[in-house]
Amino acid sequence: MAKTRDNATEKSDDDAPRLAQFESSVAELETLVEALESGDVSLEEALGKFERGVTLARQCQTLLKNAELRVDQLLADSDGERVASFDSLEESESSRASD
Prior knowledge:
By secondary structure, this protein is mainly alpha-helical. Helix content is 79%, strand content 0%. The chain has helices spanning 7-38, 43-75, 86-98. The longest helix is centred in the middle third of the chain and has 33 residues, at 43-75. Mean pLDDT is 78; it is low at 1-6. Keywords: Coiled coil, Cytoplasm, Exonuclease, Hydrolase, Nuclease.
């Protein structure tokens, strides 16, 4: 009889490739930014690096948004109430800081 894995172990195994993808994308973005800031690239190279950076940034935003949604689901009340989104929390913190 084959052993089955519990959901927690299965979820963490599923997250590993996404985490690795996120971390490598951020590292590549940092390299692109350094190259662009150095000014030692041609205009054509700079445009290519910028285009790649935009693609990577969008991928990272998607991964972060998905992580945020998972956190919201994990923190949801047992009554089915949804917790406040991170955006709402940031807005309330920034309005308190400006008071």
